[in-house]
Amino acid sequence: METPVVRNLLENNDAGAAQLRALFTQHGVVVLNIIGSPGAGKTALLERTFRDLGGTFSMAVIEGDPQTDNDARRIVAAGGKAVQINTGGGCHLDAALVRKALDGLDLAALDLLFIENVGNLVCPVEFDCGEDCKVALLSVPEGDDKPEKYPLLFNLAAVMVLNKIDLLPHTDFSLERATRSAGRLNGNLVTLPLSCRSGEGLDGWYDFLRRLRKNKTAGTRAPAGS
Amino acid sequence: METPVVRNLLENNDAGAAQLRALFTQHGVVVLNIIGSPGAGKTALLERTFRDLGGTFSMAVIEGDPQTDNDARRIVAAGGKAVQINTGGGCHLDAALVRKALDGLDLAALDLLFIENVGNLVCPVEFDCGEDCKVALLSVPEGDDKPEKYPLLFNLAAVMVLNKIDLLPHTDFSLERATRSAGRLNGNLVTLPLSCRSGEGLDGWYDFLRRLRKNKTAGTRAPAGS
Predict the structure, then answer these.
(1) 3-class secondary structure, A201
(2) I want to staple A194 with a disulfide (CB 3.0 to 4.6 A). Which of A42, A155, A201, B122 is the partner?
């Protein structure tokens, strides 16, 4: 990421992200950029969120996927609204791609907008999409060493969702190690252990979303780390 | 990946990879490029391989990691030889990085060289590192839809290692769906279900390595898909 070409790319993206952020603020919509490995449970978390909070909030998802529209179809099956971006093999979303996806959405009608990024702990972190906050989604089977290995994500995220805690008894994952090393990177990081499969811990995630929404409508800033 | 800059980058990389491939052939070393998500078990597979085949083959690992040398230290603790490449946040290895890492290795003394790529199912696939074959390492908790979502990897790999089969009873993963959809992308793909944790299925992986080694010393080509 050190070449001049890449630097220009990131600067252009930052300008596009600032425009998006202004647009989101103007419409009072809270935007979360969800970043995690392939299979960490990004779509599963959104499916649960749409099923459980669909009556409370007006929500939509921008789905980034290198190839298929499988995830968008899962969101629609859960009663949600999804706009698909196929990156054609590309490894992250950026402000320009998100901007294009907005054509399919009525921002004024939304309370919450989720950006489900491409499954990847490196590239998506570098590209601001105008979000209020980044969500680092880590799953138990990936191992408790991931905050150390991918520090930028955990440094910039407002929240670390620890999914698949139903698998804790079958792995060597230490909640304490993951939380401690992520906390060293980011003292303001909120940690939310949960299981999209069993439903355990989802209330904490829903409370987090309600707080974000409340802060936004009250005109206060999104949580630190955003 | 469609801009002229990226195209030039890939063409330059292909030239570097061709030089590496000639060098590896000259020294008769079999090179495997291991690609998988963060936490899929790339290092765990190599730890087991060094423990179990360390007396049979002379082996080394080039470790790609965005930040830490944790994985290299795990390989050394398993009795292996590891050369660390920190990509400084970069999302994949390329031929130039692998070339630099060779300074730390005596190729003539090696039977097998593993390249442990950065945890990522997208970017590493595009950058040939002169390997004999790519190993697609997928783990059960990631879900059986990954071959469909990341087709290029499964299309180009010679083998799909399905790790963490000890977690099959605790997930919805269908071995049949994963194998079928990967097989549609690549009719020659070898599928090896195993668990680095329990040891189940590792013999199949070791047989695969022995066959690769035998073919290389016999001067025949590496398996299809390489």
Answers:
(1) coil
(2) A201
A79 and B CB contact within 8 Å: no
- Residue B85 falls inside a structural domain: yes
A contacts of B94 (beta carbons < 8 Å)? none
Report the C-alpha gap between A123 and A119 in whole angstroms: 10
Which residue of chain A comes nearest to B42, CA vs CA?
Answer: A142
Instruction: Answer whether B139 sits within 8 Å of A141, measured CB to CB.
Output: yes
Flag whether A62 is in a domain. Answer: yes
pLDDT digits (tens, 9 = 90+) for A20-69: 999 999 999 999 999 999 999 999 999 999 999 999 999 999 999 888 89
Backbone angles phi, psi at A174, to 5 degrees: -105, 110
Count: domains in chain A: 1
Is B42 part of any domain?
yes
| Backbone phi, psi, residue B34, to 5° | -95, 120
CATH number of the domain within which B209 lies? 3.40.50.300
Q: Which of B43, B86, B117, B122 to mutate to test the interface with A (most CBs of A within 10 A)?
A: B122
Q: What is the pLDDT along chain B (226 residues), one digit of tens a residue?
A: 456 667 788 889 999 999 999 999 999 999 999 999 999 999 999 999 999 999 999 999 999 988 889 999 999 999 999 999 988 778 999 999 999 999 989 999 999 999 999 999 999 999 999 999 999 999 999 999 999 999 999 999 999 999 999 999 999 999 999 999 999 999 999 999 999 999 999 999 999 999 999 998 886 555 544 4
